Amino acid sequence: MELLVIDDGSAVPIASHPKLADLFADPRVTLIRLERNNGLVFGLNTGLNLARHELIARIDSDDAWRPGKLTRQLALFGADPDLTISGTGMRLVHTSGNEMDVDLIRPGSWEGVLKFTASVGCPFPHGSILARRDLFWLLGGYSHDPATAHCEDFALWALWLRFFKVAMVEEVLYDYTVSDQAISAVHAPRQRAASGTVHAAFLATDWEAIPEILHRLADYLGLSLLETGRACFTAWRFGDPIVADPEIVSDLHRLMPDRQVIATESARRHLGGRFFYLSKRPEAMPPGSRRIAGITSARNLT
Question: In sequence order, what are the residues at sequence separation of 6 or more whose Cβ sits closer than 8 angstroms to the Cβ of residue 144?
C-alpha cells in the first residue's frame, strides 16, 4: 500500500503542519507539492500518473472513509477478475447543523449501476471508488475538456460503464462533507450543464444491454470480459471505422452507435483510409488494417 498526498499549491504547504510530521515520516506516504493550483483535474491526474500499485482509491481532505471500506472492496476484486471499479454508499455530512445527515446507498450489481446512471446520473460517489490503475490510464484519466468542467468524474465513469464491468458495495463506508465552498456548490450551474451533456450522451447508448452485449462479444472472441472491453474501447477511441466479423456487427453497433461498424465482406467497398479490424479470423484481415483483436494482441492491450 502507498498513500499519495497531493498538495495542489496550497497557500500554506501541507508539509509545514507539525501535526502531520509523523504521517510524512511513514515510508508508505509520499507528499507531492505542486508549484501552483491548476485545478482539481490536474491534481487528480498527477496522482494517477504517480501511483505505483494496481488499484487506486482517492479522497478529498475534508472527507473520510469508514473502517473496512477498502477491505470490502478488495474482496469484490478478489472474487471477480473482470471487475474494474467499485464504489460504496455514502453519508452526506452537513457541518452547518441546519440539515440532517443523509445516507445514500446505490444498487450493487452491474445492471443496477447502469440503471441508476440512466435514471439519476453520476453512478459513483467520487471519494468512494476503488479502481484499476491500468484502466484509468487506458481511458486517459480525467478530462480537461471544458464541456465536462466540474463533472470530470461523471464524464470518466460514463465512458467506463460503456465498456467495463462495475459494482457497488451496498453499505455506507464514505462520509462526504457538504460545504458551501465545495466545487459542486461554487460551480453548481456549470456543473449541472456539463452533467446534462454527459448524461445525454450516456442515454444515447444501448446502456441497458451493455452487460449482455459484452458477454456475447467475449464468448465470440474467446476473451474475458475485461479483455473484450479493452479491445472494444481501443477500437472506439480513435474514431476510425471498425471492420468486424458479421456475427458481431449488430452488437458493436449497439455498443458504439457513434462509430461506423462495417462487416468484413463489405469493407473493400466502403473503406479508403484508416480503419480498425475486430475479428477472431486474422486470415480475412483486409490489407492495411491494424490488428487489435487477433486474440493474442487483445490480451496485451494497455
Answer: 41, 42
Give me the chain's average pLDDT, please: 89
Query: How many other CB atoms are there within 10 angstroms of residue 134's CB atom?
Result: 16
DSSP 39-105: -HHHHHHHHHHH--SSEEE---TT-EEPTTHHHHHHHHHHH-TTEEEEEEEEEEEESSSSS--EEE-
**Residue 131: which pLDDT band, with cuts at 50, 70 and 90?**
very high
Centre a 10 Å sphere on the Cβ of residue 85 and count the other Cβ atoms it contains: 27
Distances, alpha carbon 52 to alpha carbons 49, 77, 134, 143, 160, in Å: 8, 18, 11, 21, 21
Residue 266: pLDDT band by 50, 70, 90 thresholds? confident
- Residue count of the chain: 302
CA distances from 212 to 33, 110, 206, 217, 241 (A): 45, 11, 11, 9, 23
* pLDDT surpasses 60 at 297: no
- DSSP-derived secondary structure for 178-216: E-TTSHHHHTHHHHHHHHHHHHHHHHTS-GGGHHHHHHH
Q: Grid coordinates 471487475 are at which residue?
A: 83
Provide the whole-model pTM.
Answer: 0.89
pLDDT over 70 (residue 284): no
Q: What's the confidence (pLDDT) of residue 82?
A: 98
Cα(232)–Cα(215) distance, integer angstroms: 12
- CB–CB of 112/93 below 8 Å? no
91 backbone dihedrals φ, ψ, rounded to 5°: -110, 130
The set of cell numbers assigned to 17 is 503542519
| Cell of residue 130, nine digits | 476503488
Supply the pLDDT for residue 291: 56
Instruction: Say how far apart CA 108 and CA 165 lie, in whole Å.
Output: 12
Write the pLDDT tens digit of every residue in 143-163. Answer: 999 888 889 999 999 999 999
Pick from 158, 179, 187, 28: nearest CA to 93: 179
